[in-house]
């Protein structure tokens, strides 16, 4: 593969880091580009770690390259459009790997909520002087 990259080209890279705003991907020529969180998937992405982890190999499309060396990438634009898949599969929707179902997300939400409530109760009790303290 040529070491020169071009806008519009699709290449394979390796995720080298994940932040709250995107994922850094090392490209075949050794340079690093950024996949903004909005370019990870067609669905709303709150946490990239629900889709990918460091060292995952991914297909990326080069969106832009500026003179300062910044490279904008997209994973979303390398994947088939969900509308086409829904039409092909009738009413059934295909899930991407690592994408949680509604039930899984709801279970995670309920577990996290319970953990937060327990922390809040503990914190409130300690400020009141413990369980046995009255007002």
UniProtKB/TrEMBL annotation:
Location of region: Disordered: 71-135
Record Pfam families: S1
Single Gene Ontology MF annotation: mRNA binding
GO cellular component, one term: cytosolic small ribosomal subunit
InterPro entries linked to this entry: NA-bd_OB-fold, Ribos_protein_bS1-like, S1_domain
Keyword terms, alphabetized: Ribonucleoprotein, Ribosomal protein
Domain S1 motif, residue spans: 8-76
Domain of life: Bacteria
GO biological process: translation
Compositionally biased tracts (Basic and acidic residues): 83-92, 102-128
Ribosomal protein recorded as keyword: yes
Protein family: Belongs to the bacterial ribosomal protein bS1 family.
Function: Binds mRNA; thus facilitating recognition of the initiation point. It is needed to translate mRNA with a short Shine-Dalgarno (SD) purine-rich sequence.
Record-given protein name: RNA binding S1 domain protein
Organism from which the protein derives: Sulfobacillus acidophilus (strain ATCC 700253 / DSM 10332 / NAL)
């Amino acid at each position: 593969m040529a070491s020169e990259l071009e806008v519009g080209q699709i290449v394979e890279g390796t995720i080298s880091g994940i932040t709250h705003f995107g994922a850094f991907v090392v490209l075949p020529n050794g340079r690093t580009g950024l996949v903004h969180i909005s370019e990870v998937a067609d669905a709303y992405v709150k946490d990239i770690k629900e889709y990918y982890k460091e060292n995952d190999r991914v297909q990326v499309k080069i969106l832009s390259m500026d003179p300062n060396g910044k490279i904008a990438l997209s994973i979303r634009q390398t994947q088939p459009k969900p509308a086409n898949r829904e039409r092909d599969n009738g009413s059934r929707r295909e899930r991407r790997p690592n994408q949680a179902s509604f039930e899984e997300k709801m279970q995670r939400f309920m577990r996290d909520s319970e953990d937060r409530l327990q922390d809040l109760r503990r914190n409130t009790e300690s400020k009141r002087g413990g369980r046995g303290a009255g007002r």
